[in-house]
Design brief:
The structure is a homodimer.
Chain A lengths: L10 H12 L4 E4 L4 E4 L9 E8 L16 E7 L5 H11 L5 E6 L2 H16 L4 E6 L19 H15 L3 H14 E7 L19 E4 L10 E4 L3 H13 L4 E9 L4 E9 L7 E8 L8 H14 L3 E8 L9 E8 L2 H8 L2 E2 L4 E2 L2
Parallel strand pairs in A: 3-4, 3-5, 5-6, 12-13
Antiparallel strand pairs in A: 1-2, 2-4, 7-8, 7-14, 8-9, 10-11, 12-14, 15-16
Chain lengths: 357, 357
């Protein structure tokens, strides 16, 4: 295993120590339990937006903490869910009195722990809502998931909801917006190479020199198909068409009903893309893919969107939700309305995403 | 070779096509000869800052074109110098009447071609000055260089000189500032893995599973020493101490003397770092290194700088000058004065570096 690390068991702790030293104007770090939070938290009267998940997907989520995006992020060990005490303590630290939104990627451990944390926080008098992100069209159910996995749309939801909270939206409105982003976003990824979790010391899976995995998850979970390596154009077409032609998607998720005071089942429906939809096109590197390759993917995606009548109104191209050093990419398309576009453009200042400030 | 590309010979062309589609608010792309230039160029009355070099180091240089940084960038094929006609046509496209500064990394081909382009541009009535970046302390002379290689300080010089040009500095003053950034910046890099040039189809060098190369160049040129893999702390210490304890460095470079109307030898002296110096600390990924590892490097660098009495006043952490998918990192320390700090903080809006706009 070749990595720029010291002891594998210290990777996350030392990463957090480095982040605290590197970005003191944007974030602070709390240890035991571990979370990264806005340097100016709590912001009185503002809804606090919190996310979290296993480490190894940097800059997500810790790199998205700062003005205009997340108030806090809870990192687990690499590819391991954070624990409820991290989420609870983060909420208590950043709550500005207007409540807390937990943005939760749909992985069994994350979902369970964020639900538990929300219950604990409510028991301590905080207002907390959880919204799920489940946008990966590649597979229904997978290794760590019931239903679709939460991937690229998470980054976009964190930016848009962070901007909304900054504008003074109340908790219910930020949560409704987050749900709307989720049902309008779809993603799919692929990998050329595996990655190695530091504590494991060996690749999470094997791929032959002429093979790739299409529909892969961000922890290297199996995707739709292992196949012979194809060209960038063919790969982009496979991902983009799977996203654009994905039919209506219906499922039931659990959300907390504040009036009833209990968790309830909510039916969500992702409407399929239609000609004339305005979209944000997000080309994401899995981590190890060099930057020279991403515009080649974008070029073909742009052509396909034009052909399918989708109007690209915003773009994000780079490494934002990664799988350590895995080579590969994912594509996310988010159907945007005027409000989302306006919030996307709002100023943001985080280690991983920054403009306007 | 596993890459997200179509035909190897089309990589740069298709990358440029993708960039043109992806960032139309920031840049335009000219083909045959190839260069990326500011969407609003030429900016009347402003000095134009241009750089360029082989592709494969993205986001450098093309990703640094935009308001507050470069007016144009000339990409060669991967790891291959661009040609004088690219540099000449770029200068003619973006010259706003106040002259052009070519920022040139010290590689034999780049230096020669940028000198030729400057002579050709002058013959066509443009005012052009060339400033060299030669900041890599790892080796004197190397595979493609007489003298030290140009590496990380290039990114910082492009940001600082771009801001100065935006503020209305005249050509002489931007060139003097660029020279000052160069003599105050020092870098060194290392690699855990090689990278593969698309047209070559195989790794540029081999490293055993337990080996690393310290002092490596951004094209995989041999460094100071091939050795057994060490910890992140040990690696950071090797790089940082080599930089901080590098003695005074004297050499002669060629610059164009406008009064004499000819190229002249100029003696440059890099003063060594001293306790109390204010520095920008730049931790750079070679491309394939995951983001989780960079704060671990920064953490140790911060500790070493404190011990050595260097005051870190600004930081840059991420992938900015890369070698395709090579895993590894480089460190750059730039001694800053008030003027450089102020220019560093100025707004910038490019695909690869952005804040304040």
């Amino acid at each position: 295993m070749k990595k720029l690390i010291n002891r594998p068991e210290d990777v996350v702790k030392e990463e957090l120590e480095g982040i605290a030293l590197a970005f003191p104007d944007m974030v602070k770090v709390h240890f035991d339990p571990n979370f990264i939070y806005r340097a100016d938290a709590p912001v009185r009267g503002k809804v606090a937006v919190i996310s979290g998940g296993g480490s190894g997907h940097e800059p997500m989520h810790g790199g998205f903490v700062g003005v205009g995006m997340l108030d806090a992020a809870c990192p687990g060990q690499v590819f391991t869910s954070p624990t409820p005490d991290q989420m609870l303590e983060a909420a208590k630290m950043v709550d500005g009195g207007a409540g807390v939104l937990y943005i939760v990627k749909n992985y069994t451990g994350d979902v369970m722990n964020f639900e538990m944390a929300a219950d604990m926080a409510r028991a301590e008098g905080l207002r907390v809502l959880n919204i799920l992100i489940d946008d990966d069209v590649a597979v229904k159910d997978s290794l760590y998931t019931a239903g679709r996995r939460g991937v690229g749309t998470t980054v976009l939801a964190e930016k848009i909801c962070g901007a909304a909270a900054e504008r003074g939206y109340d908790l219910r409105r930020v949560a409704d917006l987050c749900r709307r982003v989720n049902i309008n976003g779809r993603s799919m990824g692929m990998a050329l190479t595996p990655c190695t979790v530091p504590m494991a010391g060996k690749p999470t899976f094997e791929l032959a020199e002429d093979e790739m995995e299409v529909g892969i998850g961000i922890h290297g979970e199996p995707g739709r198909e292992r196949m012979k390596l194809k060209t960038a154009d063919e790969i982009t077409e496979m991902l983009a068409i799977s996203i654009i032609e994905d039919p209506e998607y219906r499922r039931t998720v659990r959300e907390f009903d504040e009036e009833k005071g209990e968790w309830v089942d909510v039916e969500l429906v992702d409407p399929p893309f239609r000609r004339g939809d305005r979209v944000l096109a997000f080309v994401n590197s899995m981590g190890g893919t060099p930057d020279i390759e991403l515009p080649i993917i974008y070029r073909k995606l742009h052509e396909i969107c034009e052909k399918k009548g989708l109007i690209i109104v915003r773009r994000l191209i780079g490494r934002y939700i990664t799988s350590l050093e895995m080579q590969g990419c994912s594509i996310t398309l988010l159907r945007m309305d005027d409000e989302m576009i306006d919030l996307w453009d709002a100023p943001v200042k985080t280690p991983g995403l920054r403009w306007g400030i």
